[in-house]
Every structure is written in structure tokens, then in C-alpha cells.
Amino acid sequence: xxTFELAGTLRNEYGKKATKAMRKQNLxxxxxxxxxxxxxxxxxxxDVRKLxxxxxxxxxALTIGDVKKMAVVKEMQFHAVEEICLHIDFLExxxxxxxxxxxxxxxxxxxxxxxxxxxxxxxxxxxxxxGIYTNIPDRIVVDVTTLGLGKKIAVGDLNMEGLKFMNxxxxxxxxxxxxRASAAAEESAE
Length: 190
Prior knowledge:
Blueprint: E1 2-10, H1 16-24, E2 27-33, E3 39-44, H2 49-52, E4 58-64, E5 67-78, E6 85-92, E7 99-108, H3 112-115, E8 119-122, E9 126-131, E10 140-143, E11 152-154, E12 164-165, E13 172-177, H4 180-189
Parallel strand pairs: 1-4, 2-6, 7-10
Antiparallel strand pairs: 1-3, 2-3, 4-5, 5-6, 7-9, 8-13, 9-12, 11-13
């Protein structure tokens, strides 16, 4: 996984009034949960823009005052109407304890079923994996070259060393669906 550098400031004030004042100053209230005690802090909105608006999962190197921690984003809360991040929860990670995160799926290859007139459909954009954060890749690359018409790739078909997939084994990641054109071509061939 890629590493994202982020600096924060410890937070002393709590409550609705204090968080509204922070957000007016372009600060986002954050929490760090993990090994020791929980830390509450704020970060600048501009500093986290490249962390929030990316499809990749990243490890965050947090510097809060004089404390340095490695973490992953656990949860983000956004405004219901506007595209404003209201709160971020981070989860501290270490090389001894596995962590569960969502990783984006990337399809590669040209499926045989598509050549036969089918349509390739990506059913799951992200998969939940559990493992040591240094073993977790940026993306899960799935080769669909051998995928025929009406066939699918399930979570149980994937195997990556050092990672455990947390999704249901029968869940479909990608499939080639039959189209009207492929069905008509199949009927005319018979």
C-alpha cells in the first residue's frame, strides 16, 4: 500500500459548538483508535483531499504534535447534501496485528465471453481483506481472459498469499452476461 503523510493538531474542545467552529476554519475533527489510548485531533481539509478522493487504499503516516503513528482510514462521514467531509476515524496499525480494509478491484484481460457477444459486468468494486498492512496491495487485479459466456468469478476463486478475504465465498466479483445479440447468434447457429 502507498503511504500518505498527514499532520494533525491535538484537540482540546469537544461538543457541537466546538466542532462547528472547527469546520468554519476548514478543519476536520478526527479520532485515532488503536493500540493505546484514543487520540482526538483535527486536520486541515486541504491536507486530506488526496486521501479522501482516491480509489486506492493508503496507509496514513500520522504526525499529531510530537507523536507519530501508522494508521488506515476506518470511516469517513460526509454532509448529506454538500460534498464536505465532516469527520474521519483512523485505526492504528502495526506489523504484528492484522487489519481489515476494503481494497478496490481491477479487471484485466479481454474475456472470451465478450468476444462471443456477451457483456462483462463488474459486480463488486471493492473487497474486504484481512492481513498485515504491509502485505495488502493497492488493488486486487483479477484476470478475466478465460471467462466465458454465462460464467463468473467468485470471491472463493481468488487466492492471495498473506491475505484472507472477508466477503462471502459465493459472492460474484465479475461475470459475462448474455446479451440479446449473443442469444440471437446462438439460436441461429443451432
